[in-house]
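name: query_chain
kind: protein
chains: 1
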Amino acid sequence: MSTYVDLHIIQSLPPSCVNRDDSGSPKSAVYGGVRRLRVSSQSWKRATRLYFNELLDASDVGVRTKRVVEVLANKIVAEAPDLTESAPALAEDVFKAAKIKLSAPRGKKDAPQESGYLLFLSTSQIARLSDLAITSTRNGDKLDAKAVKKIFKEAHAVDVSLFGRMVADDTDLNVDAACQVAHAISTHAAENEYDFFTAVDDAKSRSEEEDAGAGMMGTVEFSSATMYRYATVNFDLLAENLGNSEAALRALEVFVKGFCLSMPTGKQNTFANRTVPEAIAVSVRDDQPVSLVGAFEQPVRTDETRGYLGRSIEALAEHARAVESTYGLRPVASFVVSLKDSDAVASLGERVSFADLPGRLRETVAARVTDEEQS
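structure:
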């Protein structure tokens, strides 16, 4: 019996540009025939991963980089300073044993070699690979390729277990992601706007011989919207990746906090756009993940009396009820955190505080795990 945890979030973004495309414009998408503001899943997953650093010990998070040789060599040096000169070569041998191709970075002849793509490694895996390289060198043994691969497959960090790992050179080292994150989109039509700005040259403005013209000028593109954010966690796969249910329950609590409160950092100093969700609806399911994005296929509209937030929550609640009544896909349990009371909020689940949400979610999922183990 599978367990899925769905998170639905309604959140307001003021004028901002948290996630830019290649031209510097806020990302967008057409849905329901109208242009929406969009924040990519990759952007919010990275923001969530960075938030983990505030919630977890360093040994429970990973590092995603092409500079894997440099990272491992630094660890070897930290553990065995006498191997400083040979550390880069030892690190290269480790990744070659795992059949991960390395090459010199472009334009940096003397720099350590790099992998051809970003490689996601747990901090604990780096430590164990370092120990293996050091021990093999001290004993005069050839590096054991099977032992290297075994380390790659064990003791995954929380973020690696949630978001997965792709190793193009050896798919046997892949980690299937236990979490899926949708691109966040506005619940309504949203267009980009332009801020023309000038910056005064302070010294020039004090000179009587100079005009008071701007030292520089330019434009910044931005948008604002009420967003629908969705993610789902396959708890069974998360437990498999982490090795046991208790570690997965802890990871689930951390993910809920991190995903709900994190914010991509694009242009944050310019717009100070840090907000918290207006409403969070969490569903524990035993059937399948269910995104409620269909609630916004017809864009939410507003008038002079009400904005988008309340109407977006009403649309979300109405669509959730329609899915349940039509398909019989009823959650095992639902919880809702909201800044305001309303009938729509009440219909989305049991009202809890954000502080209590991870604990209530843990109790619900843990009871299902216990039932499975006893059956």
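note: The longest helix spans residues 308-327.
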